[in-house]
Each structure stands twice: as C-alpha cells, then as structure tokens.
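Hello K.,

You asked for the raw outputs rather than the summary table, so here they are, unedited. I folded two proteins back to back in the same session to keep the settings identical. This is the first:
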Amino acid sequence: MRIGLNSSSNNTCVVVLTADAEFESSARAIFGASSAIELVVVPGRLADVGDTLNVSAATVVVVDLDAGRAEEMAALARLTARIGQWPPVIAITQVFDETVARTLMQMRVADFLVKPIAGIDLVRACASVGKGTGRGNDLTEAQIYTFLPAVGGAGVTTLAIQTAMLLLNSGGPRANPSTCLLDLEFQHGAVADYLDLEPRLNLAEIEPRPDRLDRQLLEVMLSYHASGLAVVAAPNRPAEMRTFDLDVVTRLLDLVSANFEYVVFDMPRTWFSWTDRVLLGSNKLYIVSESTVPGLRHAKQLVSAIKERLGEGPNPQVIVNRFEQRMFSSGLRLNDVRQALGESFVSAIPNDYALVREAIDRGVPLDEVKPGNRITTELKKLVLPAANAKAGHGKPVPLLKKLKLSAAR
C-alpha cells in the first residue's frame, strides 16, 4: 500500500512529510485554515517512508528531513528522481551549508527553507513553486495593504476603511473579492466605532491556547459591515496596558489572510514584537502623515528607520493626509512636500473634514455620503491599479490566500 493521498478532490493539495510533531502542528494550523486546501500529513522520516510516498494528486510536496544524514539525502534524491518535474518539492532542513545547498540544487528541489520557519514563509514558498504548469491549481498569495501612522491623529483609520471598501468593490462585473479589515490597535482601536459595528475579537480568550484559533472560531470573532466587508476588531480597553504574545497575533493574521483575497491593516503607532512581521509581509506599506512640518519630518524618519531595520523587505510610501493648498497661503505647498519626502512620497489626500465626520457619525463609507468625493477619487488612483493588476483580468479566484508574514532575521 502506498502512503499518501487517495482523494479525487479538485482542491489544491499540499502533502507534508515530517517526523517533527511541532512542525506537523504548525502545518495543520497554516493549511487547515482554508477549505480550498487539502492537507495530507504523512508522519515519519523520509528515509523510512519516502519510497512509498504517493504524490500523484499533490500540488506541492513539503519534505521535512535531516540534511545531515546521508540516508535522508539519498531518499530525497530518489523521491525527486521518481516524481520528475511535477509536483514541486520543498525541502525543510535544520542543517544548512554550502554543500547542502549545492546538493539540493542538483536534485532540482523547487525551494528549501531552514528551521525555525514562520508559517507564512512556508506558504509563500508553496505559492511560488505551485505556479507551474502541472496538474495542480495555482497557488497565489493574499494582497496586503498596511497603513502605519507617522504621527497621532493622521487619519489612518479613515484611509484604511476607505481602501478596504475600494478593494471590496474592485471585482467589477464578477463577484466582489473577499476583503477583511483588521484593526491592530487592540487597545484603542476605532475601526468598529467608525463603521458602527460590535467588535468581537477576544484575544484574551485565545491567548492561553492559540491552537484553538481555527476558521470556526475566527468566524465567531468576525464582524460584518452591511457592504459585506469583514472586520476584525477588539473592544476598547483604555485602562489596560498590555501586549499580546507574538504567536497569538501571528496565528490570527495567518488565519485571516488564509481566508480572504485582500487584507487591510490599520496599524498602531507603537512598535510591538509582531510589527516587523506585518511590515515585511505587506504588498503595499503606506505611512500616513499630516501636512505639517513636524508630520513630514516624522514620516521621513519612519521611512528611514523601516529601511534600516528591515532591509530590502518593505517599500514604505508616504501618504500626506488632509492636504490643502490654498492660493496666497503661506502654508506647505505640494512642491514642498515632494522636496521634503523625495521618492517616498506617493499621494496627497485632499482635506474634507465635514465629509469624513458625517461618514463616521453614520457608520458608512465616504462614497455613501458623497459619491465621487475627492478623497475616494485620490485613493482610487493609489489602490485600484494594483488591485486590477492582481485580479488578472478575470482569472479564477486564488485557492491559497496567505499573508507574507516573513520572520525578521
């Protein structure tokens, strides 16, 4: 009897071979979150079960092996020779050096990762190698839009909400893409208040046992706006001073991004243990400033700090919110903003305080108050080109939608 998959399902199938209980648990948490992913875990060492591993229906094969053992590497060589070009194989190792890298390349392994591995690193690797021309369905990643304030009161929440609404409605004639807005300001968040929703996220309930967080529990903690936008937000706790465990927050973000096509983050200004991972995983990272000299100075400093801290990962771009340029005024002009921020400047959002205030008081998006308003028009120029490019002009909705939360190294 051959070990592996006997299913005739058309779902994306990820086969994971491992003798590591911790890695197995992580894989189940990562891939088990999506109903579109069929996960098959084969327990055991590659040297013992590799020759009987059935990968005929697999989209991606993930092999956890000890690269320091000759019999393990020999078994991997036999496996790759047997299955050929498809499905692609991802090797997971604890030992890694130049010799191992050369050997893996000679075996034509599609990719390799070194433990410890952040969940989304594994997903990103699967998404990349699974885009081949084999029998499997395409694996693609969720698109992440992150809004980070340079100063307090810059209007991040309003821009994040409006961006999420634009992405939600970016599908054109086809069904609206699934979109989720996460308020990562767990202590003083305002997203639920702005949309007149009941915040349902209870991290204190999850923290003792993060493994309990699955799709069913997430559904209980989701709030839905009348537009169809999914929102993850925690109740305000103004008198509490605390942080949440890195693994708890990462598990939440991984799970959300596994189930939505677009994810928008409303970030707190404070830097937490999980902030690096969110920024590294963002497809679009926007720093939001106000149009004042101190605001621009803080934005420029934040851009430099992110690039220095996270290297070549994210590409922070600055949005100057509530910008006004009046004739015969001595205030900042657009050329001043461009000169101060340089290449990091991406957009100046017009000021329309009355419109924003009414939308907040009514709990509705800006377009419902005033269709075609200046704020939405400017955001469309910024957000929709990327969304339309990702949509692929009518290609099927991706089966694997994961957040690129790479671990900072």
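The second followed immediately with the same parameters:
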Amino acid sequence: MSHRIVIVGGGAGGLELATRLGRKLGRSGAAQITLVDAKLTHIWKPLLHEVAAGSLNSAEDELNYVAQAKWNHFEFQLGRMCGLQRSTRQIVLAPVLDEDGRQLLPERRIGYDSLVLAVGSTTNDFGTPGAAEHCIFLDTREQAERFHRRMLSHYLRAHASTQTDSAHIDIAIVGAGATGVELAAELHHAARQLAAYGLDRIRPEDMRITLIEAGPRVLPALPERIAQPVHRTLEKLGVTVLTGAAVSEVTAEGLKTADGQFIPASLKVWAAGIRAPAFLKDLDGLENNRINQLLVRPTLQTTLDDDIFAFGDCAACPQPGGDGRNVPPRAQAAHQQASMLTRSLRLKISGQPLPEYRYRDYGSLISLSSFSAVGNLMGNLTGSVMLEGWLARVFYVSLYRMHQMALYGLPRTLLLMLSDRIGRSTEPRLKLH
C-alpha cells in the first residue's frame, strides 16, 4: 500500500500542498493524497474583504475542490474534522448535513500514515460581550456575503424611500490590521460605485466608516513607515480612525469603548485578533497554546507526534533565536511552509532527515482599493524597498496571481487573467445583488 497523506484544511496553504503533492507523488502512485475540507469550494482568504464590499463576485473566483483533485491526482473528502485517534492513525469527520438539516454523509474515519493539519484560524473576539451576537466576522465566504447583503439592503431601502433627505449608514470595523484597513478602503470605493449606479439616496460621504484599534496605531504588525501613509490615506477618504480605543461591549446599536465612548453602527465587523479552531484544543494529547495553535518543531512536526504536521495560522512554529517569537500568521509564511512540506513529506517517505523551516519576510503590501497601495519589499540584494501607489498595487495583485499559478499552472492562470480583463468590460464594477 502506498503512503497515505491526509491534509485537513483546504485554505491557501493546504490546497497548495495537496496540489503539489498530487502532481509529484499522487500521479506516480508513490503516495495516496487526501484533502479534507468542510466546504466544496475554495476562495483565497485575503480576498474576503472584497467579497464583503461587493468588489469581487466570489462565484467567479472560487475553486472547486472536486475538480482540482481530479486534475491534480489527489482525492477530496467533504467533511469537518472533529476528532483524532493517534493510536490507530485515524481522523474522525463529523456527519455532514444538508441545508434542511438532514444527514448527507455519516460520521467517518480516515486512516493516515502522515497527517497534515492546515485548518487556518478564526477571528478572536477575546470574549467581548455582544461581539459574537452583533458583529460579522470575515472568516468565510458566507460571512463576507452576509455582510454584503446587509449593506446592499440599506441602500435598496433608502433608494425606495419617499423621504427627500438622504439617508446614511454607519459602519464600525474593530481591528486596524490588514483586513480592517483594506475593508474600510474597499467600502468607501463601494459607496462611490453604488452612487454611480443610481443608488444615490445614501451619498458616498453618508457611508460613515469608523475604524477602531486598541493599539496605538493602524497596522500594528507592520512597520510604522507603512502605517503612517495608510492612516493619512484613510483619513483623506473620510474614514474615522480611532486608535488606543479598546472595545468593551457591542450592542445592536453600536459599540462601547473602555474609556466610555459610544460609536453608533448598524453594521459591525470584528477583524481584531485570531485563534486556531477550538477542536484543536486537547486534540488527543497534542500540545497547544492559549489560542489553540498546535505547538510544532522547526520541522513542522507536532511536538509529541512525528507523523502529525501542522502549518499556517493553526501552528505555533518557533523562530530561530530563542526569544520566544513564533512565525507570524501571514499568507507568505503558509506558502513557504507548504513548499517546504512538499519536499519534507517526500523525504519522510524515503526515511531521510527533514529540513527545518526558517521564516523569510519578503515584505508587506496593503491595498487601499482603487485609491492606493502601500508596502515594502525585502530581498537579499535590494534590502527593504518602500512602495506606494500604482507600483505597489501591481505587486499586490501579483500575490493573488502567484497563488493561482501554484494551483493552476502558468497557461491556465494567463487564461484567467484574460477572462478577468474581458469581464471587467462587460459586467458591473460592483456586485449589485
């Protein structure tokens, strides 16, 4: 029997790993590759803020796991992992229910020789009262589409109103990291587009966006020289930026901060903090940290089981230096780790030593919709190069194209780029449904 590799999680890292292994090991029969995910389709998570604003139609940019598996020599299993039996080398998948609550697939067990957990992360509301009830998170396509429908409903109600005064919409975004910042800019762009299409009872300036950050500045995880121009651009767009403002409670009418300020908002997005999925906590004895991440060694093997790997946002991987810092939860880290694991699993099958992962920071890019982009690129020859405006936007878009190339290859990616260019000339600039 060929070596059984099971990958749980079809996000950017897990899907890229399954695709690479399928091409290298599945095609030749050297290993049996199985990808497990609770959804049938994939969309690149950094695009979810565009789905929420309506700038991106998720139905056109999604990837179907079943088709990807067929084309790349791996197997896809629909299901959500809910348990692990290390003694028998099996994972447990919860029953799958249809939209009416009827059982579509029963509980199943899948055997493995090597298990890779790439289940990503979810938003961490830090137990803030009312956050889970009144805020929308942007962890999934469904959540992003839910936000878009609610926003569009405000516009349609205002458009149908007989009142002569223009209405307004208050939107609060908690967390000024990359997601919160990019969403704020994308929503301002959406407001302009909706007005241009005739839904102008709510004028662009009447979409009142407040970005709230508990830390001292926006983009706290990135260099200050990137954060400063981003802050200035947001303010020029009319976004109210509140720093040093910790949210203490969320209600149906708005948010309360620790210093007693109340921010009215009919639409509220929580984009602050991450944690790994709850099922990883105490997963058959594997070690994890306070935000449920699995502890792994530099080889990305879990600390207590050489046959179980974890990478991406769900793994706490130490950085060299012994200062206690872990690899940051960024897309480029997951991409690098997926590339290394492709080689590592081939070495594991042949009984050879495994390489150790070292994080390489190639810089950061932040998109402010069509208005601007800011970032820095880092390389061995160039050092750190600051980018802003059109050039930064080009590099930002190229990140998604690189993801597509890893999944589809160069010829199909070029066709997708051509299709996107044609679609922009024949379709609305904003999703209006």
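The two ends are 50 Å apart (CA to CA).

Happy to rerun anything if the numbers look odd on your end.

Regards,
P.
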